[in-house]
What we know:
Elements: E1 3-10, E2 15-16, E3 22-23, E4 27-33, E5 43-47, H1 56-59, E6 76-80, H2 112-126, E7 131-137, H3 139-150, E8 155-161, H4 169-183, H5 197-211, H6 214-221, H7 233-248, H8 251-262, H9 273-277, E9 283-289, H10 297-306, E10 311-315, H11 323-326, H12 328-339, E11 350-351
Parallel strand pairs: 5-6, 5-7, 7-8, 8-9, 9-10, 10-11
Antiparallel strand pairs: 1-4, 2-3, 4-6
Helix pairs in contact: 2-3, 4-5, 4-8, 5-7
Amino acid sequence: MSDFDQQIFRLPRPLRLESGAVLPHVEVAYHTYGHLNASRDNVVWVCHALTANADVLSWWPGLFGKDTHFDPADWFIVCANILGSCYGSTGPLTPNPETEEVAYQQFPLLTIRDLVSAHEALREHLALPRIHTLIGGSLGGQQAVEWAIQRPELFENLVLLATSAQHSAWGIAFNEAQRLAIQADPTYTSATPDGGAAGLRAARAVALLSYRSYEAYDLAQTEPNESVLTDFRASSYQRYQGDKLVARFNAHSYVTLSRAMDSHNVGRGRGGVKAALGRIRARTLVIGITSDVLFPPSEQQLLAQHIQGALYAEMGSQYGHDGFLIETAQITHFLERFYAPSYVSQPAPQLSI
């Protein structure tokens, strides 16, 4: 059971969403790497962030891949493209197989719990009775913590990076600013796959301000020539990053998934965040980033405080929120300590760099 090519799983039945809407036909694109061992206890499941895809080896190098901590030679690694995305799973641009109609902005509201429902259906399809490690950062971490609450007996270890128990007012405001940029693009309602491209470019420029830090921009984008009056390095960087995203993503999926992120609240219907986190039984490592302005360390500290026995680690990084994708050497260091036998039975100390 291993395939470096993308595979498609078709849910055997319609998927009822948390909103009450129903997706009658659902496909989930996924990748697997490595092989299940005889005892089927070497499964690592990766939940990806907003604009990533199921090919985790391509976007998390240094942590996943040959000679890394999660080497497919040792682990059976699963990563599924989330619902609402544009990398193979059912989303706003997926034609209805019966009518051939495309939903565009009429695609129903997805929540984090809906994304987890698709993961759970795929896990059952793959016949994986136990997952050694569930890991995710940012929106991926939101999925991971929700899944660990829903199925506490399923996961042995849980690794959460730069994420939260509830999406903050600050994070929602950033997402709304990005959606306003997209909706201000008159082509967004044109019912075409590339509708809203100019708005998406602007949205990405807004998002980058929450993904990186003052220090990162100061070090990499400060103008070396003091005589420059326009077309600054930082300006061209924003345009370049916007163009990159438009070339590989679409505005409809971006709006859908940012709204799903806003919906994240593990305490909804469970008596609050503290009670919900108390359901988790996996050994848990929570990693915060000192320079993260989108998911500040206080949000990870809250997770560690209310997940029984959780270990909390904090890493310094100039890269802000994006540090969870970049600082793989630090993450590997924390993982090695987390999995070391001496830490198995300890209470929740803060690990130091």
